[in-house]
Design goal:
Number of helices: 10
CATH architecture of one domain: 3-Layer(aba) Sandwich
Order of helices and strands: EEEHEEHEHHHHEHEHEEHH
Length: about 260
């Protein structure tokens, strides 16, 4: 028997302000222990799909009006974001969103609030994050707002990992970063997946990068899934590279 997927989205529709249809009939599966990517142009509905899964869509006056979302086999469509974090589902938002006036270490510590662990455990968890992101250990006392874009992305990911997640929803991790930094971040994601068994659902516009690290992908256009397949199958699809992600009309007019 196939194990229960860590995340299953069944034919969801998301409305913003009870009027704007952002995604329509989106279905996808994230198997336990895998990296799955959502591909598509800006505005294709990738971010909305992630926020629906984490229920952060409500913070933007959005709502899942059709379909359901299952996390580890349980319906979490109406669950609160903090309860999802406590159960191991964490999202890293597009744009990093660090607390600029807190130090790097203080930012990381905020990721453990939902767990209510001892000081000793916090110290152990911090050292674990610093071993994965050595650059952050060097900048631990620096204000996050004065670190580089790549360092802020590492802070945002490290803060999510402080929650000891089983599933990380990662939105556009490569946006605005130098290629070398992007490679470093994706190498860390791969290590977390292979060594610690953390599952990832990643929204990404960079098709070549995303398909190099993932096992499976879905292509979104105008809020709908228009193609899916293993990364090998998608790499071979020149129409996807040329049209969906190559600057065509895909995704225009839909909410991101």
């Amino acid at each position: 028997m196939n194990p229960v997927p860590i995340l299953q989205i069944d034919a969801i529709e998301v409305l913003y302000e009870q009027a704007i249809l952002a995604v329509c009939g989106v279905s996808l599966v994230v198997p336990q222990g895998q990296i799955v990517v959502l591909l598509g142009a800006n505005g294709a509905g990738k971010s909305t799909t992630l926020k629906a899964a984490s229920n952060l869509v409500r913070a933007e006056r959005g709502e899942v009006v059709q379909g359901r979302i299952l996390y580890r086999g349980e319906d979490v469509t109406r669950s609160t974001p903090h309860s999802l974090v406590a159960s191991g589902l964490v999202q890293v938002l597009e744009g990093r969103h660090c607390f600029a006036q807190l130090t790097v270490e203080e930012n990381l510590l905020t990721g453990a609030f939902a767990r209510q662990v001892s000081r000793g455990q916090l110290k152990s968890d911090l050292e674990r994050i610093y071993s994965q992101f050595p650059r952050l250990k060097l900048r631990r006392k620096s204000l996050a707002g004065y670190t580089s874009g790549g360092e802020q992305q590492m802070v945002a990911l490290g803060r999510a990992l402080m929650a000891r997640p089983q599933l990380v929803l990662l939105d556009e991790p490569s946006m605005g970063l130098a290629p070398q930094i992007v490679e470093e971040i994706f190498e860390i994601i791969q290590q977390l997946n292979q060594r610690d068994g953390v599952s990832f659902l990643i929204a990404e516009q960079n098709i070549n990068l995303a398909l190099r690290y993932a096992q499976y992908g879905y292509v979104l256009e105008n809020g709908r899934v228009v193609s899916e397949g293993t990364t090998g199958e998608l790499v071979a699809r020149t129409d996807i590279q040329d049209f969906y992600l190559g600057g065509g009309t895909a995704g225009k007019g839909a909410a991101a």
